[in-house]
């Protein structure tokens, strides 16, 4: 995106001060993110092009983000730093549509930082407490939330998409994937068994973040305390276990999400314990027995779902995730599968850790 165009888009938003620079930030797989720097003492902002292939209704998604953030603001000591502040367009809209793309903005929280990787148990504990607190702050949120991505962590829905993708074979890749397709098939009933407990209400539905990797938490630059959860695009009603499971998938991995060297990929049990300690320190007293019973399994569930999603995108011809090279989604799927196997091997230890903490 050229700079002139970016300045033109920025001018649509009710930013304070003169915009002096707009620079890319981070490596999200979905949206394009920029930092907007303004002159003098005026605040800086985050400007994002929201991917509307992934998010079909960006205004409704922004409505979720505003509602949830307003709710959190009413409860925290420092609302401008412990919650997101969405910046409206000059005409008062939640987002701007430019050439068929949707743009949205929020305040850049000053004196904040984030981490790309959780490389210590201290960070894992803090991250767990951060997401646990996010869920606690929203426990009494009672407004309807738009389902931003239909069936996001609903494996029954994912299997419908999966079956259609495999049948369509849009990129002609199915024939070479017999082994990988069997990884998915062999665990299908087990995953549906877990999800049916969510569907029948045995496991309760709450307000959840749904994308809980470490880079989606802001820390204070000075104190290193957690400030708030960011990237609220996927805030929806689901089981709180998905937030735990997705974090376990990312925090505990000893390798990279897309590691070609599978010998580097495994689940680190100390990181699992630390994340669980942090999460349960905030949530234990309000969790049901069924949630605690399935907490450890949620890591396996979400990692399996991620194998399926990466593989499905590879089968579809790489339509969803940004890729850096042609078989990137396949490499991601294989690395996540290695992580899944490592979790399955350590499942009884994961279970006893949760049991001891709860
Ligand atoms: C996507 O773009 P990013 O990094 O926030 C995805 C997550 C995946 C993740 C895999 C809306 O998140 O669900 O777990 O990639 N977000 C969406 O790293 O699909
Ligand atoms: Mg995200």
What does this structure look like?
This protein is an alpha+beta fold. The protein has helices spanning about 5-10, 60-75, 120-135, 155-170, 180-185, 190-200, 240-250, 270-285, 290-315, 330-345, 345-355; strands at about 20-25, 30-40, 45-50, 85, 95-100, 100-105, 110-115, 205-210, 215-220, 225-230, 235-240. The strands form three sheets. Strands 1, 2, 3, 4, 5 and 6 form a six-stranded antiparallel sheet that branches. Helix 3 runs parallel beside helix 8 (about 270-285) and helix 7 packs antiparallel against helix 8 (about 270-285). It binds 2-acetamido-2-deoxy-1-O-phosphono-alpha-D-glucopyranose and magnesium ion. Magnesium ion binds near residues 30, 211, 231 and 233.
Short description, anyone?
Helices cover 45% and strands 13% of the residues. By secondary structure, the chain is α+β, with helices and mostly antiparallel strands.
Small molecules bound in the structure, each named once: 2-acetamido-2-deoxy-1-O-phosphono-alpha-D-glucopyranose, magnesium ion
CATH topology of the largest domain: Aminoglycoside 3'-phosphotransferase, Chain: A, domain 2
Q: Please identify the structural class as seen in this structure.
A: alpha+beta
Instruction: State mean pLDDT (0 to 100 scale).
Output: 97
CATH homologous superfamily descriptor of the largest domain: Aminoglycoside phosphotransferase (APH), C-terminal lobe
Largest sheet: 6 strands, antiparallel
Q: In whole angstroms, how far apart are the ends?
A: 50 Å
Overall CATH architecture of the largest domain: Alpha-Beta Complex
Unreliable stretches covering 5 or more consecutive residues: none
User: Which class of the largest domain in CATH terms?
Assistant: Alpha Beta
What is the CA-atom radius of gyration, in angstroms?
A: 20 Å
């Amino acid at each position: 995106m050229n700079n002139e165009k970016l300045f033109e888009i920025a001018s649509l938003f009710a930013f304070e001060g003169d915009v002096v620079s707009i620079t890319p930030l981070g490596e999200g797989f979905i949206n394009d993110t920029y930092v907007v720097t303004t002159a003098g003492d005026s605040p800086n902002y985050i400007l994002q092009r929201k991917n509307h292939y992934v998010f079909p209704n960006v205004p409704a998604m922004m409505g979720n983000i505003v509602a949830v953030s307003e709710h959190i603001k009413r409860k925290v000591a420092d609302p401008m730093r412990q919650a997101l502040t969405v910046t409206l367009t000059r005409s008062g809209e939640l987002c701007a549509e430019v050439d068929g793309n949707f743009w949205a903005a929020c305040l850049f929280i000053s004196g904040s930082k984030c981490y790309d990787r959780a490389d210590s148990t201290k960070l894992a504990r803090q991250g767990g407490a951060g997401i646990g607190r996010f869920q606690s702050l929203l426990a009494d949120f009672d407004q309807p939330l738009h389902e931003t991505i239909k069936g996001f962590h609903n494996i029954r829905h994912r299997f419908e998409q999966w079956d259609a993708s495999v049948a369509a074979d849009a990129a002609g890749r199915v024939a070479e994937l017999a082994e990988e397709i069997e990884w998915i098939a062999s665990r299908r009933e087990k995953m549906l068994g877990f999800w049916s407990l969510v569907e029948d209400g045995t496991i309760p539905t709450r307000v959840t973040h749904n994308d809980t990797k470490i880079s989606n938490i802001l820390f204070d630059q000075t104190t290193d305390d957690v400030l708030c959860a960011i990237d609220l695009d996927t805030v929806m009603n689901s089981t709180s276990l998905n937030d735990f499971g997705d974090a376990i998938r990312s925090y505990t991995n000893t390798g990279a999400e897309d590691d070609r060297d599978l010998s580097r990929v495994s689940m680190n049990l100390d990181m699992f314990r630390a994340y669980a300690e942090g999460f349960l320190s905030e949530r234990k007293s309000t969790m049901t027995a069924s949630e605690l019973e399935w907490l450890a399994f949620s890591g396996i569930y979400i990692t399996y779902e991620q194998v399926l999603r990466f593989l499905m995108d590879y089968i579809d011809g790489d339509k969803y995730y940004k890729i850096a090279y042609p078989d990137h989604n396949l490499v991601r799927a294989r690395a996540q599968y290695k992580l899944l196997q490592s979790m399955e091997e350590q499942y009884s230890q994961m279970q006893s850790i949760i049991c001891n903490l709860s």
